[in-house]
Specification:
123 residues; mainly beta; 10 strands
């Protein structure tokens, strides 16, 4: 089964905030760790952060620590990426992904992918 994750992106000014949501269906959601990735224009896709099955553990890449927060609602089958103090270098297509595996940091670790959404941060 494929994860039909829907994510809402948009345009925001530098210093602003945006929340992305990933709605999962067709999965045993609480069994999956969820990760967020992004791909900036002309660059390779990179890891942003992840959250454990129960939501008690989360990790982030250094460039977003202290600014981004991942959370999940296992009742609603939703995962959120709260992005604060956005910078122009955060401009990218953002993806959520789900994995049953023990590693949650690499795109090759992921079992299911949502469609990406573009986040544009203007200076």
């Amino acid at each position: 089964l494929m994860c039909s994750c829907r994510v809402g992106g948009g345009l925001v000014q530098a210093g602003g905030s945006l929340r992305l949501s990933c709605a999962a269906s067709g999965l045993a959601f609480t069994s999956y760790a969820i990760a967020w990735f992004r791909q900036a224009p002309g660059k390779e896709r990179e890891f942003v952060g992840n959250i454990s099955w129960g939501g008690d553990r989360a990790g982030y890449t250094d460039s977003v620590k202290g600014r981004f927060t991942i959370s999940r609602d296992n009742v609603k089958n939703m995962v959120y990426l709260q992005m604060n103090k956005l910078k122009p270098e955060d401009t990218a297509v953002y993806y959520c992904a789900a994995t049953l595996g023990s590693s949650w940091y690499h795109d090759y670790d992921m079992d299911h992918w949502g469609k990406g959404t573009l986040v544009t941060v203007s200076s």
